[in-house]
């Protein structure tokens, strides 16, 4: 379903429920408090970013009548991952493999968020402390499954599953066990999975946005520019390429050269040579950061100097350098120095307070690990409000969650619910490499939600 159709469906449903409520108003004098049906998308509920209040009770499946005869939900009963006092969250991340350079800061960012919740808010619902249990996937699907099986009976949900292949590997087990998982991957197809809680603009939207910006707004090129692409040979690369090819068709340009790469590749001589010989003036990078940095070093060696247009996973400030002078990337988060964004001020303060390494500086992956947990926190607050932290209770809470407010940390807020009721965010910020703008070495150039996104179907 396209984003536009999601919005239309939500509006039609709201009007229908409003009409039904009005139509029954003359049947009973106390009808204002008697309607027990809520909109299925929960779109009138905004979850807090700082956890100071539970999620708005207006998103409950039923509304208590005025006479108070319906008792509020009681305390959640013990369940897998919840002993009545402590909530345990599972994390499937790369701690020692090729993506450990991302996995370690992601988990650290998550821990910083929960340290803040535990220390300053008293835990979820003001009383339940949160603990993290991590499993090292080594970015390997079989290891991810093994770690999932080890952790599942002691986790209320999986609050991070790093990268696309491990998410694919455990998805069927999540479905079988009815456990909610948060993909550390932006593949658009996750929006259609009831047990997954995606966040951020999908890779497909990132590529549509950056292509639209490059052709129409950047002043760097246009439809006549020779444009090419390098993509990872997995689902991440496939969906990102699908979005890019859609944008190319709509905008009227061709991808002159298409090259694929594998995770862990170290030799990019042939790839760079092929791009150079094809006359590529702009290269889209649907890649991962270590390999992208290696490829750009090879490009410098060969004297190949195109404009690079990257998806979020292609860039990491720790690996950036002079070769990135013409590198542009689509991201969700604002500039770390943008103190006009309330959520960024909070993130930077909490990062300084709770980071385990006194010398660490924020980057996109510390940030991603942190902000992913805002939605998890909202979900847990909703489950506590409904009095059920079981697997079924958490899955039910997600269908009622609605919009989660991020205080500007993402370009748009994600609206949760059952898959057919979700409204994924589709906007991106476009950044350029800037060595004079620490800590992330990026400067924001544009905030864009391309009109083309309305016609693109995620997972289609």
List keywords for this structure.
globular; Rossmann fold; 11 helices; 4-stranded parallel β-sheet; alpha/beta; 460 residues; 7-stranded mixed β-sheet
Binned, the helix content reads 25-40%
Structural class designation: alpha/beta
- What is the CA-atom radius of gyration, in angstroms? 23 Å
Could you say how many structural domains there are in total?
3
Number of strands: 14
The number of distinct helices, counting runs of at least 4 residues, comes to 11
CATH T-level topology of the largest domain: Rossmann fold
Query: What's the pLDDT, averaged over the residues?
Result: 87
Largest sheet: 7 strands, mixed
What top-tier CATH class of the largest domain fits best?
Alpha Beta
Helices and strands, with pairings:
Layout: H1 3-23, E1 46-47, E2 86-93, H2 100-120, E3 129-136, H3 141-151, E4 157-162, H4 164-177, E5 181-184, H5 203-216, E6 227-232, H6 235-251, E7 255-261, H7 269-277, E8 282-286, H8 289-302, E9 307-310, E10 327-331, H9 342-354, H10 364-385, H11 391-399, E11 402-404, E12 414-416, E13 428-433, E14 442-448
Parallel strand pairs: 1-11, 2-3, 2-4, 4-5, 6-7, 6-8, 8-9, 9-10
Antiparallel strand pairs: 10-13, 11-12, 13-14
Helix pairs in contact: 2-9, 2-10, 3-4, 5-6, 7-8, 10-11
Structural account:
It is a single chain. The chain is about 35% helix and about 15% strand. The chain is an alpha/beta fold. The protein folds into three domains: about 1-35; about 85-200 and about 335-420, Rossmann fold (3-Layer(aba) Sandwich), CATH 3.40.50.2300; about 205-330 and about 430-455, Rossmann fold. The strands form three sheets. Strands 7-6-8-9-10-13-14 form a seven-stranded mixed beta sheet, sandwiched between helices. A four-stranded parallel beta sheet has the order 3-2-4-5, sandwiched between helices. The longest helix is centred in the last third of the chain and has 22 residues, at about 365-385.
